[in-house]
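Deliverable D4.2, example record:
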Amino acid sequence: MAVAERVARRVQVTKLQLQAEDAEARLRQTYEALGQCLYATHAALAPEAVNVDAALPLCESVRAEQRALQEIRDRLASRYDDVLIVPLIRLQEDLQTGGGTIERVTVVPNAQADGKPLGEAVLPESVRIVLVRRSDTLLFPSAQLVLQAGDQLTLIGTRSELPGALQSFRT
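Output generated by the structure prediction step:
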């Protein structure tokens, strides 16, 4: 029963992640449309006669998409509290008993990993990235995920190997 509940929670979190990605894409498209509208209005008229009223509906669309995205992020954050925080504390306790640890590191600008796919990260065999936090969004690691400066990574591994693995994200 506990396994089924964990799977159901992960499915809910994954669905919310996909909804957040869709909302972010819609928001980017709306921003692009707004920019194109403003540029077209500016290019067609004399600069002193720019008609901003044509862009107002797009501004409302941007606000609506921002609200929708924030609502999804809030729901996602509440799910992560239930799904991840308590189990990670228990996991850290278990790891310490067995010689392991969990660490969080922030990717700094121009670090070796900045701008590269996660699959290219060179990590010892005993170290794994288990979670990537980008702004308010939690991402599950995949080889194709491109790391960015500011990403917070949660790593799990042995106490002896983990400090060296953190360096590629800091330098």
